[in-house]
Design goal:
By secondary structure, this protein is α+β, with helices and mostly antiparallel strands. Helix content is 20%, strand content 26%.
Length: 89
């Protein structure tokens, strides 16, 4: 498993850079993960950890990702809902 704050060495979803920037503005600490079946992001916010799988609107889950217990976010609004944030930046 790779655990990199600065970015993993694999193709990332196009949504991810903007999503990361917005989450950081909210005060969310993030780490990008990279390995088969792992979520894309590990987030720490308000004393809790959250795992998020980032997919574009047309993105599909791989076979390894389908049984995953973490939410799939397709927008900043989705991520904010998971984190319990009312406003979207």
């Amino acid at each position: 498993m790779s655990f990199k704050r600065g970015g993993a060495k694999k193709r990332r979803d196009a949504l991810e850079p903007d999503l990361l920037a917005a989450l950081h503005r909210l005060g969310v600490q993030t780490w990008q993960l990279h390995d088969t079946g792992l979520p894309d992001l590990l987030c720490f916010f308000r004393g809790r950890f959250y795992a998020l799988e980032v997919k574009g609107v047309d993105g599909h889950l791989t076979a390894a990702q389908q049984p995953a217990p973490w939410p799939v976010v397709r927008s900043l609004a989705d991520a904010c809902a998971v984190l319990g944030v009312d406003e979207v930046c």
